[in-house]
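Me: Here is a favour to ask of a fellow structure person. Could you put it straight underneath, so I can go through it closely?

Assistant:
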Amino acid sequence: MLTVYLLGEQRVSDPADTRGGPISSRAIALLAYLVLHAGLAQSRTRLAGLFWPESSEQQARTNLRRELHNLRGVLGADGALAAEGPTLTWTGSPSCRVDVDTFRNERSAALAALADSDPRTFLDHADRAIDVYRGELMPGTYEDWVLEHRDVLRRQCVELCETTVRVLRESGDVETATACARRRIQLDPLEEVGYRTLMELQAASGDRAAAMTTYHRCAAVLEAELGVAPSPATAGLFDHLVGDRPTVGAAGAGRPERVRNAVPALIGRERERAELHRRWRQAQGGKQGLLLVSGDAGVGKTRLTTELAEIARADGAVVATARCFGLPGRVALAPVAEWLRSPELQSAVASLNPLWRVEVERLVPSAESWPRPTTSRAMVDAWQRHRFFEGTARAVLASGRPVLLVLDDLQWCDTDTTAWLAFLLSLQTHMRVLVAATARTDEAQSRHDVREALRALRSARLVTDVEVDPLTADGMAELARSLGGRTLDPSEEAVLYAATGGYPLYVVEAARMVPDPDATGFGGGADDLGAVLQRRLEQCSEPAREVAGLAAALGTDFDLDLLSEASDLDADPLVQAVDELWRRRIVRPAGTGYDFVHDLVREAAYRSVGPPRRWLLHRRLAQGLELLHTGRTDDVALQLAEQYRRGGRPDRALHYLQRAAEGAAGVFANAEALRHFRHCLDLLEAMPAGRNRDAHEVEVRQAMSAPLTTLYGYSSAELEQTLDRTAELGQQLRRPTVVLAALIGLFAVHFVQGHTAQAHGIGVRALELSAAEPQFEGQAQFSVAGAALGLGRPAEAIEHFDLARAAFSDDYSFILGTRLEVHARAWESHAYWMIGDDEAAVQSCAEALALGRTCGHPYSLAVALGYASVLDQIRGDDVALLASLTELRELCERYRFAYYSQWAQILEGRLLGGEPGIAKIREGLDLLRRQRAFARMPYWLSLLAEVQIEVGDTDSARATLDAARIAAEQRDDRWWLPQVLRLRADLGAFAGGVPARTVRERRLPTV
């Protein structure tokens, strides 16, 4: 069935349509106009003038015919759109569903049932109507006819929500009524009646804390959008529900009226605001990029991006916000997950192709998709990471509207999020996407991964820098005047500017202090910022200070459920304490909970707690998190690990840190996973030696092999040490499966490093052990085969390659990271060539390529193409070589396969020839050496020598071939040694000066 979505998005979907061509925005607008005026004939002339007012009448009619042709191609011949002479009429059709029609029909049915005193039927239809209303009509469009219908539909849905809440309350279903009241607030967040209804429902269910949060959110929205406070009716209801508030202050003085100051105006930032506006206009025009607002802490960076977000929302853009926290336990890709959880992007995710939606659900699982989609346990999964990044990036772009992603505190961003941002911004050209990030200048420069990510984006000209400096003396004075309600005299201005340095946060916090009766000047005197914040906290009541310390110990935003579990306070004092912190602007509503107004305030609150008390708070927070996430602690594993670590429970921290590492690997955040695994080893090092510690260590080391390989390759020294230690622990614990898996991994390590004989010995040992573990026999046979071929024993290699394919029942090697039947056939083709069976070599290679192209595993295809390219080269088939290299290079660039990318580079250099070819080969060789990847080095060096011979540089060729011979003998890499010796013999002695000649007489194709 064809479905037209006009509420919350603009999209036409037809699962049966395989053409996949997008429908133009103008065609969707035309369709929407006809749908909104269903049953009414519309003049073609009027439609042409309405949609193309600046075109001539003839051109407008031509444009209309074109869009109608496109629409008919989408709608088909089902009769939904009737064309009768000069008019067009939308009549609808059973095979075409339009969400606006569905909403109208369900709403009408609900109201009819209500009139018939049938509440059950009313609720059924009302629920379906509210569910289909996913957002405002045609978001991002501001034509008069759209605005008129948009307001009508929104008001109809708001009123339907109100009626539904009333019916549900009368039936006693407070829980469902509460959910519907929240939906009503989403539809119209500026109407206080919705907040009052929700507060009453929350209080009726006994959740006064939720009622307080609702009031705080109402006040924040009204203040930000309208610059007003809640009405007396709303404030009075809150006072009635929450009860009397305690007095505050050290001396027990009543709460001062000036505690809840207005949000400070954005003063003295004309240049910065103009730059933000300019860059947003460019993004709307299709120039994507990163807008980096940088400066010192407290200089006002977040205030600027907040204003930009308001502008973007007013322009109909999708706006999603996230922030990073300066914790050791930062969660990989947490900002991306936070963006994807925003309602507008969640709506877009639902429209994604299932191929991409499953990638999004790895990071943000829906209720239907829990548990998360499985992730490969293979060592090499870079190609899956690419697909995961592409799926999540497509979710951000799926709405078809301009997108603004706001990221606060980029300096604390994890490596994988910065990599994702780079991927997003380079996915395609002319995207209407802008990432607005704030960063503390010094800290961003001190973080290597953040610095390198910004360098790469700047080199691609994707970064716009906006440096924010402290206010001038005049700007500071104006800000102080707006906050304090009076003009400071020159001496006060001088003192305040000297004390604050023009940093807005300092000025604001000084203004928010309740001055002592005897204090003079602005905010009761000038101290450093830390002292000002400390004095602000001291003015709170003791319960409020206790709650502030507890919330600060968490290190991130928080909710009242967690505070309730971890605090000594009962519900009522807790609610009053949080309310006090909110009124003093120490905390603010954030998401479904609260956060400190600034990280510096959080740090001050944490410093106010003594070390013994901190230890207790961290344990209580950990226990509270466990209780609140029973059955799904993986969602907060990193927070639990950090809280238990700070609370003196390394055993519990180890458990959750390992879970967090596995979770990071599950979304291909390999750098973060490896960081967590290394932290696990640090915790284990401090634990008492024994079998229990060894058992934990072997689990950690087994799991960390995969991210090590993905990040650093098989030749990594750390990977070798990890696998050696894994095998050692497996022997001590008498776990043959662990030993065998580690040996197969060590085979790959030593072979790639060029230790051919050692790799063969490891393979033989693995094969002996596999007699008792038949599930590993295929991989053990493969290890012996590959090493035997490297030793120059092709017949033995063929025997073991055949046995590997016969013994391996699964289709995927979780240890080697490839499809074994692809890898074995590809490598075996070289063995056939070495014994002179060219036909078998070609056939084995072709089978490997065919399997690689159909197995859905890009890394295995890259392996097949790599071996095919070598076979094409040694057979002298340069046309086939060029084709293989072209495909291999594209695959390696797409998925960032480093090792086989160097294969392609060296072989391209050989094909290219001449001095450019020599330079290309040398660059590839240097990259392999940096990776400590010395396997096949005699072969690679012989290719360099061949090109050197062709250009007449026989002395260099002799030296290169002698280096190849030495490498073959020292590393037992003998498979290409006969060819090296043959070439070297043709050149004669060093001093002879043999005339240069072409190694092969053949015509080289153009690379």
Observations:
- The two ends are 49 Å apart (CA to CA).
- Residues 144-171 form the longest helix (28 residues).
- The first strand starts at residue 2 and ends at 5.
- Residues 246-261, 376-380, 516-521, 990-1007 have pLDDT under 50 and may be disordered.
